[in-house]
Amino acid sequence: MDVRRRQPKPPLPSAARGGGRGPASSSPPLEPPKASDALPLPLYLTNAVFFTLFFSVTYYLLHRWRDKIRDSVPLHFVTLPEIAAIVSLIASFIYLLGFFGIDFVQTFIARASHDAWEDLDDDVNRGFGCTDIVAPLPKSRDPAPAISALSSVEDEEIVKSVVDGTIPSYSLESKLGDCRRAAFVRREALQRTTGKSLADLPLEGFDYTSILGQCCEMPVGYVQIPVGVAGPLLLDGFEYYVPMATTEGCLVASTNRGCKAIYVSGGARSVLLRDGMTRAPVVRFGDVKRASELKFFLEDPVNFDTLALVFNRSSRFARLQSIKCSIAGKNLFTRFSCSTGDAMGMNMVSKGVQNVLDFLQSDFPDMDVIGISGNFCSDKKPAAVNWIEGRGKSVVCEALIKEEVVKQVLKTNVAALVELNMLKNLTGSAVAGALGGFNAHASNIVSAIYIATGQDPAQNVESSHCITMMEAVNEGRDLHISVTMPSIEVGTVGGGTQLASQSACLNMLGVKGANKEFPGANARLLATIVAGSVLAGELSLMSAIAAGQLVKSHMKYNRSSRDVTKVC
């Protein structure tokens, strides 16, 4: 397959576009343009003038300065002719310095345009298959921007250079200046290297510039994930349609049923308990005594204002909230917690921590910083510190489901739900030694919303920490259900939230971008929506299990009847 891209040809001159009836072969050959055409004089004459000027004024000034030295006249006393000579010297020097660039540009353009105009002349002489009318040249739908280092190299040659290692794959964007073309070249090189086809991996229809230096390196395409909508979710008196990106059948339908049960029961209520992102560096000292001295210094309330002042310099949104330390031998782990506005905040808190570490070096010069993150944070890992202390947004969400709704919408009864929750979510999870996993499938909903709204999917690990509680109330007739999620890590600015599709999903929820009036309000609202959606998902799945419908519904909605071998 020839992957070379034919460069669009220059537009036809007016004579070639005219309705001339004579044979096309009688047209005079077309001359390629020259870079020197832009100069007022021919290039050789212009060069001669400036060469003469440069050496003439240099000779004149040297003689004038020699005479001044002989006559003991200060050199900084200059006459009008000397000023003119100095100006002429500078001007001629600048021109001669740029002459080699001009000569290079002329040669470069002449070579490139000569080939293009030769092709154009051949097409005109052939008449494009018609001796009467010359059809207008089609415009390229995706013109490639001008490139610097590889402007005369075809895509095929670039692909070969990537395959043999002459051009690093990671440098294609910077060398080509075209993110889409770089993805195409990298993709073709990958296919030739592996011998595997990527025909089913989409390439077109994505803005690769939007991810450059931000979301993904060395792209070769993108993966399509369907986005479903569950809702309306009635939460705190407002309705939300929740976008969920998933490939699991039944998930959106089940969450949607939970939203319906909550809606007809009067809605859910949420409370935000805490909002603070954490980062915990690890430092080492020569002995335990010095490590403990730093621990006492950091945890002393007297020093907090000074440390907060240093920390808060990292951002106008970063505000230090607390510092907690833990010692392991002569190693000190320090957990900083701060507010981060509408950003998820990992970069923000890391910069603040770095400021504090630099500040502490003056009083603790023997402190050896082992790492900016010592896993006491703890990020993207199940950890008791997040389950107990919280990380990101800590949210509690509850709803009171009426008896008739449990029977008619959820197809079960209150007593069965309460018993199942106690044995499955509480006792069963304890038997399994679960850490933050006292729920049915909180991770399902969290992951789907995270992918749809541009969050970090890996943070689903701690963000899915959840304990689901169910209790029969009003003399056993109605069901009180709640979810407690201590570490929901979300943001509405930065990262994947700036991509077009993810931004549209955030806009659907009314939390797109930063809240200018109340910084951090959009991210906090998104966290409560996540918790409310988890509440709906827990309610529906637990009801399906209690009613014995789980297997039946998955066999109906989560199994494909297509013959995959025939599709392939």
Automatic annotation (TrEMBL):
Cell compartment(s), UniProt: Endoplasmic reticulum membrane
Please write the reaction equations for the catalytic activity of this protein. (R)-mevalonate + 2 NADP(+) + CoA = (3S)-3-hydroxy-3-methylglutaryl-CoA + 2 NADPH + 2 H(+)
Q: Which GO biological process entries does UniProt record here?
A: isoprenoid biosynthetic process; sterol biosynthetic process
EC numbers on record: 1.1.1.34
What InterPro entries does its record include?
Answer: HMG_CoA_Rdtase, HMG_CoA_Rdtase_cat_sf, HMG_CoA_Rdtase_CS, HMG_CoA_Rdtase_eu_arc, HMG_CoA_Rdtase_N, HMG_CoA_Rdtase_NAD(P)-bd_sf, HMG_CoA_Rdtase_sub-bd_dom_sf
Cross-referenced Pfam families: HMG-CoA_red
Q: In which pathway does it act?
A: Metabolic intermediate biosynthesis; (R)-mevalonate biosynthesis; (R)-mevalonate from acetyl-CoA: step 3/3
- Which keywords has UniProt assigned to this entry? Endoplasmic reticulum, Glycoprotein, Isoprene biosynthesis, Membrane, NADP, Oxidoreductase, Transmembrane, Transmembrane helix
Bilayer-crossing residues are 41-62, 83-102
Q: Name one GO molecular function term.
A: hydroxymethylglutaryl-CoA reductase (NADPH) activity
Q: What class of enzyme is it?
A: oxidoreductase
Region feature (Disordered): 1-33
Instruction: State the annotated membrane topology for this chain.
Output: Multi-pass membrane protein
Q: Which GO terms describe its cellular component?
A: endoplasmic reticulum membrane
Q: What is its main location?
A: endoplasmic reticulum
Would you identify the family this protein belongs to, as annotated? Belongs to the HMG-CoA reductase family.
NCBIfam families per record: HMG_CoA_R_NADP
User: What protein am I looking at?
Assistant: 3-hydroxy-3-methylglutaryl coenzyme A reductase
- Species for this entry: Eucalyptus globulus
Q: What is the lineage of its organism?
A: Eukaryota, Viridiplantae, Streptophyta, Embryophyta, Tracheophyta
